[in-house]
Write a structure and sequence with these properties.
Blueprint (H helix, E strand, L loop, with lengths): L1 H14 L3 H9 L6 H77 L5 H8 L9 E6 L4 E6 L6 H14 L3 E5 L4 E10 L8 E10 L2 H8 L5 E6 L2 E5 L3 H12 L6 E4 L2 E9 L8 E8 L1 H37 L2 H12 L14 H66 L6 H26 L8 E3 L1 H7 L1 H7 L4 E6 L6 E4 L1 H17 L5 E12 L1 H6 L6 E10 L6 H4 L19 H11 L3 E6 L5 E10 L21 E5 L3 H13 L3 E5 L2 H11 L5 E5 L7 H11 L4 E6 L16 E4 L4 H28 L5 H11 L6
Parallel strand pairs: 12-14, 18-19, 18-20, 20-21, 21-22
Antiparallel strand pairs: 1-2, 1-5, 3-4, 4-5, 6-7, 6-10, 8-9, 9-10, 11-13, 13-17, 14-15, 15-17, 16-17
């Protein structure tokens, strides 16, 4: 409390200091007069009074609100207990009524529905005293006999109630005679026992609900209890004069929360006893808040008194200590004034160990921190500018990539068509090959840019990183020179990760190439894998990696290493330490983009002359490994005239793909957009076997178009093509079971993907035809049973 009071003393003086006072304190001249100190004390006391008054009011409001919440919770609990008690009693009475109805139905069946059964049953000594309604009706719902002990029940009203219960097939129901509410049990009796197939009529046993029963129920928790039939209060513990007022208020509320009856407020709860019945029967529980409000008012008075005492005591205490803590503020004020002018060397006096001295020393430390932060601010601004530059580069690359890859697709496609018509000895053949190689290099550069800005399309699989590196061993050994010692240290119990295998291979290759270039005189290259659980202890040394379970891939070399300035820029695109012409500066930028898009993290440790260690942390998954195999090259020339729908918003790319497919014998439907493709598919009225669509199109993306077409053609296959992944989308993955063709693509690559996608449909159709031939000689009835067992319809 003293520390807080001291801060309150300092800042009002700082807010409105006079320049004369600051100079006097700084030069050791006489202190300000008594009037200035009294002014400070007045400000302090006024502020303290306002704060304490505000806190007292806030405390009162909070306590009042808490008391209301507790009251409401208490009412809910008591109402719930009353309702549960009533339901238990109701269930016990219902069991007794069901038992009485069963006995009465047996007697009625034995007497073949004789109307004297009711009169005799009403006079029998075994009759339960709680059962004050007995009735017998024929199978048409007409009451033949009725016996009541608690008041008259009109037969016409009973027949209406019986017909309503018959419509809802109720055996336990609520009946209202117009003056009294009954809980009844309905039991049919039969004329052909024991088969019981011919209903002769029904018997009804019921009991009336009285005020005494509700009074006993309400006495459990000092509540008022009422039963409502529709909008009418039929029985209640509330006085008769207040029932009309209660019914009027309940008519406007679905559930009673607060009700004002005769200037007394009640909290209420309602339980529908006959859900689905119209009109419904409801149990209403009301609790008066008079006692709780009295307790709350007493509590408010007590808190108000304590608040006033605290206000007076705090004012006297602050006034007593104010004189001591206002004098040593001169040095602190002088330091603040100097700091405002940018002087960080002003001498501060901090003698003693009281709060003001501690505050003065804290101000000195703060001043040192501000001085250090001033230097750090420039670094942060530079970092922000670099981050904005990186984001701008990513957006620029993504925006250009789509159109650029479309252009490369047209260039590569038409170059391939031209080369097919030329001979190696022709004059134009060499130029065409140069165009093809240049387009391939441009496509590779575009893919690296897209990997950096995390806009590439991924095809992730559950992988064993050890197996992936082992499969790459032969390739890696060709990249590593003979003067470099290479070793691979796998974790035998390594977990699985979900990533694109091709992209992960590219990451390992880039790390290997950089490590080899960093060791021109030879050295050691080590690749290791390990299961890592990043907890708080590990996170202190790896602050960029969140807590969790990971598979770590580490690549360590003994090369030249990097200084801090170089290490801070290694993931920037086009940044390289190699000579001009020997590196694009996109290798590690590509690595960064791939790992981040795969949900992973990278940590780098390096010092000049001590080598470099890259650690990649990929989230561990518990799914089973998916085998990664090279896609089979499939012949695409021989077709059966399958129909392919092409959806592509770039005219040149669409025309090129159409030419490729038509030359292979396919029937081609083309569309400029997803909507046009849907309209064309609706007009076609013939099977469409495959959809070839761009992933990113205006108004309707490729996956959305594929989903819509599957509703028209459930067996249609999908092949996606794209040059990049949309920047605004949530991820870069395509749906499972679909194939993907990266732009720019060649004729062979496109036809191979089309043939691979259609191959599954051909196999399925051949299996269906074989099944048809197998059952062709069987009777038609057996064929239908077989089709039903297979759960599908065979289409020829």
């Amino acid at each position: 409390m003293c520390r807080t009071d001291t801060v309150a003393i300092v800042w009002p003086v700082i807010k409105k200091p006079s320049s004369k006072s600051i100079v006097c304190y700084g030069l050791g001249r006489p202190r300000p007069g008594k009037a200035s100190i009294l002014k400070l004390r007045t400000k302090l006391l006024s502020s303290l009074v306002l704060v304490i008054a505000g806190l007292t009011c806030a405390t009162l409001l909070v306590m009042h609100h808490r008391a209301e919440l507790q009251l409401e919770q208490q009412v809910e609990d008591e109402a719930r207990n009353v309702i549960l008690t009533f339901q238990v009693v109701q269930q016990q009475h219902q069991i007794a009524l069901n038992h009485t109805a069963d006995l009465l139905a047996t007697v009625a069946s034995m007497r073949n529905g004789d109307v004297t059964t009711i009169a005799d049953a009403g006079e029998d000594p075994w009759q339960s005293p709680d059962c004050d309604l007995l009735a017998l009706a024929d199978h048409n719902g007409h009451i033949l006999a009725m016996h009541t002990t608690g008041g008259e029940f009109p037969i016409a009203v009973a027949e209406v109630m019986l017909r309503r219960s018959g419509r809802t097939r109720e055996v336990n129901a609520w009946w209202y005679s117009g003056a009294r509410l009954y809980q009844v049990a309905i039991q049919p009796f039969y004329g052909d026992p024991p088969s019981n197939k011919v209903i002769s009529g029904v018997v009804i046993a019921g009991r009336g609900i009285g005020t005494q029963e509700l009074s006993d129920l309400g006495g459990i928790s000092s509540t008022q209890v009422a039963l409502r039939y529709g909008d009418n209060i039929v029985v209640s513990t509330i006085p008769a004069l207040k029932r009309v007022e209660l019914a009027d208020q309940l008519r406007d509320q679905a559930a009673p929360e607060q009700i004002q009856i005769d200037e007394e407020r009640y909290w209420g709860s309602l339980k529908v006893l006959s859900p689905g019945l119209n009109p419904p029967v409801s149990l209403i529980v009301l609790k008066s808040d008079r006692e709780a409000m009295a307790s709350l008012a007493e509590l408010n008075h007590m808190l108000l008194g304590l608040g006033l005492l605290a206000l007076l005591a705090a004012g006297a205490l602050v006034f007593a200590i104010c004189d001591r803590f206002t004098r040593p503020l001169g040095s602190l004020l002088g330091g603040v004034g100097a700091l405002e002018k940018g002087d960080y060397d002003y001498r501060l006096e901090s003698r003693g160990s009281d709060e003001v001295a501690q505050l003065t020393r804290a101000f000195g430390r703060m001043r040192s921190t501000l001085q250090a932060n001033e230097a750090q601010r420039q670094k942060l601004e530079d970092h922000l500018r670099r981050s904005q530059k990186m984001e701008a580069i990513g957006r620029l690359a993504g925006g250009v990539a789509h159109d650029f890859n479309n252009l490369l697709t047209v260039i590569k496609g038409h170059t391939a068509l031209m080369l097919e018509q030329l001979q190696p000895g022709d004059a134009l053949y060499s130029g065409g090959r140069q165009i093809e190689r240049a387009a391939d290099r441009a496509a590779s550069l575009t893919r690296q840019l897209l990997a950096f800005c995390r806009m590439q399309v991924l095809q992730p699989k559950v992988l064993d990183v050890n197996a992936l590196i082992s499969d790459m061993a032969k390739m890696l050994t060709r990249l590593i020179r003979a003067d470099i010692l290479f070793s691979f240290r796998p974790d035998d119990a390594l977990g699985r990760v979900k990533a694109d295998p091709g992209q992960l291979e590219q990451v390992i290759l880039n790390f290997t190439v950089n490590a080899v270039d960093a060791m021109p005189e030879g050295g050691t290259l080590t690749i290791e894998t390990q299961n890592i659980t990043v907890d708080e202890a590990v996170a202190r040394n790896r602050p960029v990696v969140p807590l969790g379970s990971y598979v770590m891939l580490a690549v360590t070399d003994t090369g030249c290493g990097m200084d801090a300035q170089t290490k801070a820029r290694i993931f920037e695109p086009f940044f390289t330490t190699k000579e001009v012409g020997k590196g694009t500066g996109l290798g590690l930028a590509t690595v960064y983009g791939v790992i981040k898009q795969s949900g992973g993290w990278i940590w780098v440790e390096s010092e000049p002359g001590k080598g470099t260690r890259f650690e990649v942390y990929l989230p561990r998954v518990m799914e089973a490994e998916e085998r990664v195999s090279a896609p089979a090259r499939m012949a695409a020339a021989a077709t059966r005239g399958e129909t392919v729908m092409i959806a592509e918003d770039e005219d040149a790319v669409r025309d090129l793909a159409s030419s490729f497919l038509k030359s292979a014998g396919y029937t081609v439907l083309s569309a400029r957009s997803g909507r046009e493709a849907l309209e064309s598919a609706m007009r076609w009225r013939k099977p469409i076997h495959l959809l070839l669509t761009d992933m990113v199109m205006a108004h309707m993306r490729g996956p959305e178009l594929a989903e819509e077409l599957r509703r028209l053609y459930p067996r249609i296959q999908t092949v996606y093509m794209s040059g990049y992944h949309d920047y605004a989308s949530s991820d870069g993955e395509i749906e499972e079971g679909s194939l993907f063709v990266q732009k720019p693509f060649s004729r062979e690559c496109l036809l191979s993907a089309i043939a691979q996608a259609l191959n599954g449909v051909i196999v399925e159709e051949q299996q269906a035809l074989s099944a048809i031939r197998a059952v062709a000689t069987a009777p038609m009835k057996a064929s239908r049973r077989s089709a039903r067992r297979n759960g599908r319809r065979l289409v020829v």
